[in-house]
UniProtKB/TrEMBL annotation:
PANTHER family: BLL1555 PROTEIN. Residues 61-141 form the EfeO-type cupredoxin-like domain. The lineage of its organism: Bacteria, Pseudomonadati, Pseudomonadota, Alphaproteobacteria, Hyphomicrobiales. InterPro entries: Cupredoxin (IPR008972), EfeO_Cupredoxin (IPR028096), ET_Amicyanin (IPR052721). SUPFAM superfamilies: Cupredoxins. This is EfeO-type cupredoxin-like domain-containing protein. It comes from the Bacteria. It holds the Pfam family Cupredoxin_1.
């Protein structure tokens, strides 16, 4: 806690999201440390020296091609996508920050956990409807996905 209150060294790798000083009283510090001690993870962050991770969820054999969306500068780009049922969406974290992807929609709920820079998540959409995707780390990041019925041949 002392390090974050007074010992942060300004480096080029320092996250722009990190406050430069944290001013907490002793009681607040003790409460924060007690809270942090309750946290655990089955999937801790990967060292940047490891290759990027690819997550695939709900993708069927018919979803050969995927539309790609970027996660950068705390936003999805583009911010809205139109797909047909059976198509897939690939989201690439090409930022320097860790992001996350949460999907809520008709009969679909998905959470990617942490996506380190370079990681991709590919999601198949098999049902028409509207899907909202947000970054659970930066909730202002929002992506609107509309899935239409696939055309019959």
């Amino acid at each position: 806690m002392d390090h974050y209150a007074t010992g942060i060294v300004n480096r080029s790798t320092l996250s722009a999201d990190l406050p430069r000083a944290i001013d907490l009283g002793e009681t607040e510090r003790a409460q924060l440390v007690a809270f942090l001690n309750t946290l655990s993870s089955e999937d801790p962050p990967r060292p940047v020296s490891l290759p990027p991770k690819t997550i695939t969820w709900g993708v069927t054999a018919q979803a050969v091609a995927a539309t790609t969306v970027s996660q950068k500068d705390r936003r999805f780009s583009p911010g809205a996508i139109l797909l047909k049922a059976g198509e897939a969406l690939r989201i690439l974290n090409d930022d320097t920050r860790t992001h996350n992807m949460r999907v809520d929609g008709p009969n679909m709920s998905f959470n990617s956990d942490g996506q380190n820079p370079g990681d991709t998540v590919t999601i198949g959409f098999d049902r028409p409807g509207h899907y909202d995707i947000i970054c659970g780390i930066h909730p202002e990041m929002r992506l609107s996905v509309d899935v239409t019925s696939a055309r019959r041949r």
